[in-house]
Amino acid sequence: MGPLNAPASRRIRVLLADDEAMIRAGVGAILAAGGDFEVVAEAADGREAVEQARAHRPDVALLDIRMPRLDGLAAAEEITATVPGTAVAMLTTFSEEAYVARALGGGATGFLLKSGDPHELMAGVRAVADGAAFLSPKVARHVIDGLGGGRLSREAAARQRVATLTPREREVLGLVGAGLSNPEIAGRLHLVEGTVKAYVSAVLDRLEVKNRVQAAIVAYEAGLLP
User: Fold this and answer.
1) Separation of alpha carbons 136 and 29, rounded Å
2) How crowded is residue 63: how many other Cβ atoms within 10 Å of its Cβ?
3) Quick one: pLDDT at residue 162?
4) Secondary structure of the chain in the HEC alphabet?
5) Which residues in 58-173 belong to E strands, given as ranges?
6) With contact defined as beta carbons under 8 Å apart, do 133 and 179 qualify?
7) φ, ψ (nearest 5 deg) of residue 125
8) Is 20 helix (H, G, I), strand (E, B) or coil?
9) pTM (two decimals)
10) To which H or E segment does residue 224 belong?
């Protein structure tokens, strides 16, 4: 029997940081079953995670939130700032809005639950490695519900922001919101990847958001997603 859900693609190099050795072993086993992942380094605290990220420059740093010396949120901010080629995803049992908001504000583009489905974990790491955004569905509900203000007022504000975009930019935003990576968007819209990258950058600038996850939230609230 072949690897679980392994696509025919390059191997994704992962840094796995959690203060519990059993969690690291379990997540490592899940990734190993995927067939296209390679855990290149492990860390038991946030400071070590930053050091390992700088030393190994993995595609994805998968960080627990609560770790000694330096928590995962602070580690995510430091890795994002100093190791630009490494995408950051948070791995946690805590889905409170405050954690999610700070993680996204610090540059994380993925938020996964330890108790989630193994397929979801692998899909999330793959998405983040490809430059897309990925939130566990349970986390996404917390984010939407915890943004503050009434739902109708948030929808109206989001529609007003989206109205400043060109039709093509709105189309790109909708696909970003659906979790597609730049290569996938390029294929869907029959564009070269460089053009898609320029569109995504323009959309982030116009919406005044920091990353694809925040853009996806605007797309959701503006009604661009099913």
Assistant:
1) 20
2) 30
3) 86
4) CCCCCCCCCCCEEEEEECCCHHHHHHHHHHHHHHCCEEEEEEECCHHHHHHHHHHHCCCEEEEECCCCCCCHHHHHHHHHHHCCCCEEEEEECCCCHHHHHHHHHCCCCEEEECCCCHHHHHHHHHHHHCCCCEECHHHHHHHHHCCCCCHHHHHHHHHHHHCCCCHHHHHHHHHHHCCCCHHHHHHHHCCCHHHHHHHHHHHHHHHCCCCHHHHHHHHHHCCCCC
5) 60-64, 87-92, 110-113, 134-135
6) yes
7) -65, -40
8) coil
9) 0.67
10) none
Taking the C-alpha atoms of residue 191 and residue 172, their distance in angstroms, rounded to an integer, is: 11
Structure tokens at 41: 């380094």
Strands of 60-64's sheet in order across: 37-43, 12-17, 60-64, 87-92, 110-113, 134-135
R_g (Cα) of the chain, nearest Å: 17
Residue tagged 């070590």 (tokens): 48
Positive or negative, the CA dihedral 42, 15, 91, 5 is: negative
What is the C-alpha to C-alpha distance for residues 180 and 166, in angstroms, rounded to an integer?
19
Place of tokens 């797309």: 219
The amino acid occupying position 161 is R
Hey, which bits of 26-161 come out as E strands? 37-43, 60-64, 87-92, 110-113, 134-135
Residues 160, 194: Cα–Cα separation, whole Å: 28
Amino acid at 104: L
Mean pLDDT by 10 residues, the chain (226 residues): 51 95 92 92 96 96 92 92 91 70 77 82 88 74 56 70 88 87 90 92 88 83 77
Query: Quick one: tokens of 97?
Result: 């809005």
Closest listed residue to residue 96, CA positions, set 74, 76, 73: 73
